[in-house]
Amino acid sequence: MIDNPEFEARLWQALREVEDPELPISIVDLGLIVDLRFKAGNVAIKLTFTAMGCPAMDMVMDDVRARLEREPEVDRVSIDVVWEPIWTKARLTEEGKAQLREVGISV
After folding, report:
1. Phi-psi region at 44: left, alpha or beta (left = phi > 0; alpha = psi -120 to 50)
2. Pairing mode, if any, of strands 76-81 and 42-47?
3. pLDDT score for 15
4. Are the beta carbons of 6 and 13 closer than 8 angstroms?
C-alpha cells in the first residue's frame, strides 16, 4: 500500500501502459501485479506470470522498470517474482476479459 492515493493511482496507471508481449492486454488487466509498495523513492512490486516457463519474463520486468522509472518520484524499482497466489483467469480484470474476448480468446 501507498500512503498517497493520487500517487498510487499514477503508478497503477503507469503499469497499465505495460502490455503483455504476446497478448493485447496490460499486465494490470492480466492480473500479474500481486503487490505494489512505495517508500522513499523505491517502488517494490510483487509480480507473477501466467506460466513459470514464460519466455517474456525478462522483457516484462524490463518494461515495468523502464516505465516506472519515468515517474519523477521513483528512484529505484525492485521486482520480486512470486508464484503464490497462482495465476488463474480469475485474476483478470473485467476490462482484461473484454479485451481478450475482442481478439477471440475465450475467458
Report:
1. beta
2. parallel
3. 98
4. no
* 91 phi and psi angles, rounded to 5 deg: -80, -15
Cα–Cα distance measured from residue 95 to residue 18, given in angstroms and rounded to the nearest whole number: 15
Among 105, 22, 60, which residue's Cα sits nearest to residue 97? 105
Residue 100, SS3 per DSSP = helix
Task: Select from 29, 36, 32, 42 the least CA-distant residue to 107.
Answer: 29
Contact 85, 46 (CB under 8 A): no
Domains of the chain by residue range: 5-102
Could you give the strand order of the β-sheet that contains 42-47, starting from the edge strand earlier in sequence?
A: 33-39, 42-47, 76-81
Q: Does domain 5-102 have CATH number 3.20.20.220?
A: no
Q: How many residues does the chain have?
A: 107
Model confidence over 33-61: pLDDT tens digits? 999 999 989 999 999 999 998 899 999 99
